[in-house]
Amino acid sequence: MPVKKVPGVHFPYCLIGGELVEWEGDMQTVNSPISAGDEVIRLGSIPMVSADLAMEALHAAETAYNNGIGEWPSLPAHRRIEVMLEFLEDMQTKREEVVELLMWEIAKPKPDAEKEFDRTIEYMRDTIRSLRTMENQSCKAHTAGGVLAYVKWSPIGVVLCMGPYNYPLNETFTTLLPALLMGNTIIFKPPKYGVLLHTPLVELFKKHFPPGVVNIIFGSGRTTSTPILASGKVKGLAFIGQSKAAAELKKYHPKPHQFNTLLGLEAKNPAIVMPDADLDEIMPEVISGAFSFNGQRCTALKIFLVHKSISKQFLQRLSEKADTLKIGLPWEDKVQITALPEDGKTDYLQSLVDDAVEKGAQVVNRVGGRSEGRYYFPTVLFPVNSNMRIYHEEQFGPVVPVVEYEDSSEVVDFLIHSHYGQQASIFGNDPEQIGELINHINNLVGRININSQCQRGPDYLPFTGRKDSAQGTVSLNDALEAFSLRVILAGKLTDKNVELINNAAPFTNILVACGLQMENHE
Predict the structure, then answer these.
(1) Which helix (H) or strand (E) segment is 99 a member of?
(2) By the number of CB atoms within 10 A of the CB, which of 16, 29, 48, 108 ranks highest?
């Protein structure tokens, strides 16, 4: 039995229209992936709401938006920023509670759970700085072709936000909070795993935002999200998860041309190890990239393409390091492999390993290829080829396939035929060879990392992907722009129009705050 107090979070509420609505129907039990021997540890329960209640949340969001003239969308940006800063200040008081639930719910190691919380706060403060920069640009009067114009950012309407289980706080809030900042109203449905950790924040959303601006519902995505989207009244979808689920969601919307989507989906990021790679130097990036949080990251290194001349040395070092990774409870010191949250995940990983072994691969590290309860041990497979499922499928777990190649064209071929195109990492030292490879793959992925693991940050950089890996781009600026439109106030450049435009709401508040700035493009 884990020597730690188990959270008990029974939360029979949803936040709808600024009120905590008590749900009297079915509840979903939330269990921890951490067990006490054969005993399942129950963490709490959340509502399994009906489609009718989901539609009430939609109505509340619509009412709060009120065709763009509701209280929240009508506020000038600096007032929305003030509200958000107050929310973030209160949110930090919940840090310990949220971190505790991240460990219990998805077995995230404590340093990673703390980092997820802190990074979310930092991301939002950086986003606010980006919004202030955008608003300062709105202060500038543009004159060109005899026209005076101001450009301002405007919300799009109701946005549905659905986050992932692996980064249920950070990945969700990096779309939800920017959409809020731009004046949209929100319906938020947390993921199946990593759901309880949002309950301490529900009261804060109720406290800081006007009624109906943030609506939080729990339960089945199929039951709740389908009718919301089918109504055609949602103008934006922020979804992070599987491409099949995203495609299913999108097809319900009756007017896709009126529907903005920002999707972060799966990946099969290759690590390309070139003949002159310094194995001692790259191994920390290799291990972290492949096994950090059990490899349950879209940015994880999911497959290694290793030049034949160094494959034996690479496999030896990789296997030795994989066998030393500490397996245990998320609050234990220096633990690296923890229990897997998803039901049936160890069986799925075992099926990938069995398929590869049946088709000629071997488990080359000592502890690999086995599981205990919800734990799957770090596993290195070699030689892997295109006939094996692990070559194509995103494993999202601590199983690492290694493919041997002789010519760089084989690497390019992998990326051409892959369903995914998020990132790639190149490990090597010859600038000519690396440059040639970059030229061949830079139109196949969204980011190329040199002697570094794949990653999302720093957050000012665009985070995107091709094919089934993403739709849209996330960064400090992009997340704000994804759920907003630019509106232009313009008129012929006459003295009368200058006076009218410079005194017209909602630009008056901006101009008073910034001072009139003229930018002449003639």
Answers:
(1) helix 95-106
(2) 108
**470-509 burial by CB neighbour count: b if 16+ within 10 A, else e?**
bbbbbbbbbbbbbbbeeeebeeebeeeebeebeeeeebee
Domains of the chain, start order: 9-30+42-265+474-481 (3.40.605.10), 270-461 (3.40.309.10)
Q: For 282-300, how does the pLDDT look when each residue is reduced to its tens digit (9 = 90+)?
A: 999 999 999 999 999 999 9
| Structure-block tokens of residue 406 | 């002789």
Nearest of 384, 371, 424, 377 to residue 398 by alpha carbon? 377
Per-residue model confidence as pLDDT tens digits over 413-446 = 999 999 999 999 999 999 999 999 999 999 999 9
Show the CA angle centred on residue 279, arms to residues 278 and 284, nearest 5°. Answer: 115
List helix spans (H) across 306-443.
311-324, 345-358, 389-392, 408-417, 431-441
| Measured distance CA(493)–CA(63) in Å, rounded | 38
The phi, psi pair for 9, rounded to 5°, reads: -115, 95
Cβ(342)–Cβ(357) under 8 Å? Answer: no
Tokens read off for 85: 């800063």
**How far apart are alpha carbons 138 and 132 in whole angstroms?**
10
pLDDT, residue 287, reads 98
Residue 46 and residue 247 in contact, taking contact as beta carbons nearer than 8 Å: no
SS3 118: helix
CA atoms of 218 and 226, how far apart (whole Å): 14
CA distance 429 to 370: 36
CA 204 – CA 121 distance, rounded (Å) = 14
- Tell me which residue of 233, 207, 258, 176 sits closest to 83, measured CA to CA: 207
- Asked if 314 and 281 touch (Cβ cutoff 8 Å), the reply is no
Q: Distance of CA 55 to CAs 17, 198, 224, 238, 314, Å?
A: 12, 21, 8, 18, 55
Secondary structure (H, E, C), 372-410: ECCEECCEEEECCCCCCHHHHCCCCCCEEEEEEECCHHH
pTM: 0.94
Residue whose entry in the numeric block shows the structure tokens 């069986």: 347
Q: Is the dihedral of CA 95, 100, 106, 111 positive or negative?
A: positive
Average pLDDT on 193-219 reads: 97
